[in-house]
Specification:
D-amino Acid Aminotransferase, Chain A, domain 1; Dna Ligase, domain 1; Rossmann fold; globular; 32% helix; 3 domains; 4-stranded antiparallel β-sheet; 14 strands; 325 residues
Length: 325
């Protein structure tokens, strides 16, 4: 399990352990909270953009006889997809779409292009050199083209401010700001392209994480989510985000090829999301009848303190923990 320092990877590690799996917790940060979960086997790996990442991951999988890899954070997606054949040669399973699909979901400009070509409503998007084309009075969002986790996202009302931010935000793009009720669809797409989606309102969002959510049912949202999944060729576990405006218009803003931070609500509402993901990961059929859910179920979430302690003591005990079976 990669990215165990972030909420999605940390949460998925917890439930996989509860289901009886041995989880190798991998992260570039030696203080990643997932390393401290009981029964997790911690291993520090290079950052995904490090040239040593593919070799380090392949060696780790081979040395520990890893059976499958699940990405918990966006930067790991493309390098893992690119080494899928290498991992498969060592018997390691990976459930991701092809590299084009991964790029379409991790490059916001390309994602906009694909959805627009397929007639799917998505925010108008401009490159930094196209800011003069932005219509007067358009509220804007400036964000990294390959960003994740709501990092370096800025809201502005004027083109001039967007132009300045494009010089500060790495590889920036500019998008129209969308208003409405925000939602996430927790999705599982089987190997034949059939998708199940659980809809939940993002009632309160802090730092990109939905701290209060409620499941709901809306056929129009379901339909557009499924169109989005099909347009980019998504497979496996993923989540789609968007807005429903006051007049019912549905706008898709992004698709993440990983589990969402709020997936416990999906499970609480009755969908066996993780269990069916594991089945699909190991080549078994996905039972979509077990991915139905009840609307009107809520979740409240907060940041917790997992551990505090002495770094020197952690370093002394870490080698012993890494040798755990």
């Amino acid at each position: 399990m990669t990215g165990v320092g972030a909420i999605p990877g940390l949460g998925l590690t917890r439930i996989l352990i509860r289901l009886g799996h041995t989880v190798i917790a991998a992260d570039a940060n030696r203080l990643a909270p997932g390393f401290l979960l009981p029964s997790a086997v911690p291993h520090v790996v290079p950052l995904a953009n490090d040239p040593d990442y593919p070799d380090a991951m392949a060696d780790l999988c081979r040395d520990l006889a890893v059976e499958a890899v699940v990405a918990g954070i966006e930067p790991d997606l493309l390098p893992l997809a690119q080494m899928a054949d290498r991992l498969a040669a060592d018997g390691v399973r990976l459930w991701l779409p092809g590299t084009w699909s991964v790029r379409a979901c991790t490059d916001k400009a390309l994602f906009h292009e694909v959805l627009t070509e397929n007639g799917i409503a998505t925010p108008r998007t401009w490159q930094p050199q196209e800011i003069d084309r932005v219509p007067d009075g358009t509220e804007l969002v400036v964000k990294p083209r390959h960003g994740h986790g709501a990092q370096n996202v800025h809201f502005v009302h004027r083109r001039e401010h967007a132009r300045v931010l494009c010089e500060l935000v790495p590889k920036a793009i500019v998008q129209e700001r969308i208003y409405g009720r925000e939602f996430t669809a927790d999705c599982l797409v089987d190997r034949n392209g059939r998708a199940s989606a659980v809809l939940r309102h993002r009632d309160l969002v802090k730092g990109g994480l939905a701290t209060v959510s409620t499941t709901f049912d809306d056929p129009n949202v379901q339909d557009l989510v499924e169109q989005t999944l099909s347009a980019v060729g998504a497979r496996g576990l993923c989540c789609v985000q968007g807005f429903v405006s006051g007049d019912g218009t549905v706008t898709i803003t992004e698709l993440n090829l990983r589990i969402s931070g709020g997936y416990p609500l999906t499970e609480a509402a009755g969908a066996d999301l993780v269990g069916q993901m594991v089945s699909g990961l190991f080549g078994l059929p996905v039972d979509h009848s077990r991915l139905t859910y009840r609307s009107g179920v809520f979740l409240t979430n907060c940041i917790e303190t997992l551990a505090v302690g002495d770094v020197a003591e952690l370093e002394r005990t870490a080698p012993a923990k890494e040798e755990a079976p």
